[in-house]
Amino acid sequence: MSKQAQTNNMLPKEEQRLTRELEKLLDVISMCRDINNDFRRQQFRKEFEEIEKKALEVFKQQLLHQENRGKINLTIIGNFSSGKSSIINALLGDDVCAVKVNPTTSSITRFIYGEEERIFQILSDGTKKEISKEKYLESSQHKISNMEKTEVAFFEYQYPSPLLENIILYDTPGFENPENKTDEIVTKTVFKEKADAVLFVQDISKPSLEETTKKRIETLKKEKADIPWILVLNKADIASEENINTVLSFWKENNNGLFNKVIVYSAKAVRDLQTIERAQREIESKIIDALLKKKTVSISIETDKKKPLFKKKRTSSRSQKVEIKLETDEGTEIFEYQTVGERDKKLFEAHKKLLETFKELSLQKEELLERRIQKLKKELVEVANKNLEKVKVSPEEFEPIQELKETLKFLNSLQEEARSTVIRNPRADLTAIVKDVLDYLERKRKLLKLDSTLIKKSKKAVKEAYSNTRDKLEAIRDFFTPIINHLEGQLKSLEARGKEQAKHTGEKLQKLKDTINSINKSIQTPQKQTSRKTKSNCIILNTRDLELIRQVKSIWKDVLKDALAADNELSHKSKRKSTILEKWIFLKDVKKFLKKELKIDEYLLDKALKQALHHDPRDPYPTFSETVNSFFEYLVELINENY
Q1: Does residue 57 carry a pLDDT above 50?
Q2: pLDDT at 158 (0 to 100)
Q3: Which ranges of the sequence are coiled-coil (predicted)?
Q4: How would you classify residue 345: left for phi > 0, otherwise alpha for psi between -120 and 50, otherwise beta?
Q5: DSSP label at 427?
Q6: 476 alpha carbon, distance to own chain's centre
Q7: Which is more confident, 297 or 387?
Q8: Is the CB of residue 200 less than 8 Å from the CB of residue 231?
């Protein structure tokens, strides 16, 4: 089996269904062209062209749906310096956009997924030129040189962020920039041409919108009424809880349908948290690597306040500086990082809420596209059924059978007329009688496939005719008989070919009708969503691993009971949470059991173990039970991917 064939077989069921639908539409298009070319006079050209045009329209929409399935074009709009670029940095987890006090973004940047970080200038003529990050940061900012007329249409930023697998981000200059009035025009253009949803960013310290901004939003909403708008109140890290509650109350009373959702957010808090997470993971990776290599490990933890890090209740909302000393067989390493404060955790929940909103928007867009495609398919079926009723398949439609029959009838009538004329008037001139016949035959010679020698021979028979009646009648017979015999033989051949072609085209036509019926059936039977959600994405279970996963889940329940008991013991007796070393020892025994009893590959067990021991930045010190759940969730996912 080829690599491509293997890839196709591994496609999820929904992708396979969409691919089959595309193939059906391509079949309709090609069959319409093929059948139309079969007909000699193409008298049904209009009917087939209408079907083909509608099928092509559905195909383009279906292809667009498949290529961008689950993706949304998210346009980020707002007044200048409200933190639009900061939010993009937070969403992507990296400083990809320039962030300053003064308005910075002067051009449109489209952020799409890429295997590696690459930036391109897209010129107004469509030319694509790769540039450095330094060049991008300079070119995309508001400077006097950049505010002049430029040939750059927009920038394309390719970045390996999981978020960009489902979202295409558009960073815009925004509104209300006194230094450059063209920003508003550029922003509106992107909204009209690209937006599936809008993230409107507003500084939380300025909760109410300017009247001009409000009017702009209302105007844009009228142009694309079905586009959801989400208000993000940024810079919440500098606002008090009381101010945040006041702002939320204000928007609850004054929204008036302007925004579909209001989210309090802090791009700075999210970026700080991501920096902490990166430092934590670096430390954890070294600890876990040492454990996996079966080294002797000793860990000691101290905080800057000389207090236990794990208190039952932490009243402080601030983070703590932590020093971790890792002693192994190879020596001692000291690491420092900061824990996550309670306030930062709360602000990070808004980040999660925003990401969940993106998923909802993606589903809404998919449903909208699906409805649009279903409507187009319905129109295709109606157009096809209406036009195919007019199409008649018979031998006469493929060969000039009818014309030949009419010619034979005409020649036989002329022969009888010539004989009657000679009998009535023996002195009649045969040349004059057959002149019109010869002219007619000459005009029809190509269509009737008459040999010029045959016509000349018949003409010669008339010229050499005797003057008496008997000789003239024989001359008439010698003139008409070869031609009529030839045409009769030609008619039999055409009828045989026409019958065969009619049968062949009839089969094609029936296949086209069956394909149309199949498309109609897919409209009437909505597709069921059968995929099951896991921690990272959707997986499809098959019969080969169902039994293994059932056994793993059974063990999961038993191990979870032991983990909960261990959590309770630590909480009530020791007044602390479990350490990473304690969780490692606990899961190490589980790993041995799974390897021995279920014969699961040790590589998969180690991979799941390593993933589970990595801390979540929102909860840096998870319990035994939380770590056990993470371990088994990862393991089930790995089994499905590898078995």
Answers
A1: yes
A2: 92
A3: 351-421
A4: alpha
A5: T
A6: 76
A7: 387
A8: yes
How high is the pLDDT of residue 338? 64
SS3 135: helix
What phi and psi, each to the nearest 5 degrees, are found at residue 129? -130, 125
The secondary structure of the chain in percent helix, strand, coil, rounded to multiples of 5, reads 60, 15, 25
Query: For residue 72, what are the CA distances in angstroms to 63, 166, 198, 369, 394?
Result: 15, 7, 10, 11, 51
Q: How far apart are CA 363 and CA 306, in angstroms?
A: 49
3-state secondary structure of 392: coil
> Residue 16's Cα: distance from chain center in Å?
13
Taking only the tens place, the pLDDT of each residue in 559-605 is 888 888 887 777 766 555 667 667 777 888 888 888 888 888 877 88
The confidence score (pLDDT) of residue 596 equals 83
Residue 143 has pLDDT above 60, yes or no: no
| Sign of torsion over alpha carbons 159, 163, 164, 169 | negative
Residues in the chain, total: 643
pLDDT tens by residue, 94-123? 888 877 645 454 678 889 888 899 999 888
Q: What are phi and psi of 130, to 5 degrees?
A: -80, 140
- Please give the pLDDT value at position 8: 45
Is residue 310 pLDDT above 60, yes or no? no
* Whether the Cβ atoms of residue 419 and residue 480 lie closer than 8 Å to each other: no
Cβ-defined contacts of 205-210 (< 8 Å, 24+): 205/235, 205/238, 205/239, 207/233, 207/246, 207/247, 207/250, 207/251, 208/250, 208/254, 210/79, 210/176
- Residue 3 burial class via C-beta count within 10 angstroms: exposed 0-12, middle 13-18, buried 19 and up: exposed
The yes-or-no verdict on residue 533 having pLDDT over 60 is: no
Q: Which pairs with CB-CB distance under 8 Å and at least 24 residues apart come from 525-528?
A: 527/14, 527/17
Task: Identify the pLDDT of residue 540.
Answer: 35
Q: Which of 320, 303, 312, 316 is nearest to 342 (CA)?
A: 316
Distance (Å, rounded) from C-alpha 414 to C-alpha 436?
Answer: 10
Location of structure tokens 């596209």: 369
- Rounded mean pLDDT of the chain? 76
Cβ(85)–Cβ(97) under 8 Å?
yes
Could you tell me what percent of the chain has a pLDDT over 70? 75
DSSP 571: I
Closest to 586 (Cα-Cα) out of 604, 567, 601: 567
pLDDT value of position 149: 46
Instruction: State the Cα–Cα distance between residues 61 and 109, nearest whole angstrom.
Output: 26
Q: What stretches of 344-482 adopt beta strand conformation (E)?
A: none
- According to DSSP H, which parts of 525-579 are helical? 543-569
Instruction: Give the torsion sign (CA, 267, 269, 274, 279).
Output: positive
- Contact yes or no for 171/88 (Cβ under 8 A): yes
Residues 381, 374: Cα–Cα separation, whole Å? 11
Please report, for the chain, how many H helices and E strands are present, in that order. 19, 14
Q: What is the CA radius of gyration of the chain?
A: 40
What is the C-alpha separation between 481 and 422, in angstroms, rounded? Answer: 17
CB burial string 324-345: b at 16+ within 10 A, e below: bebbbeeeeeebebbbbbebbb
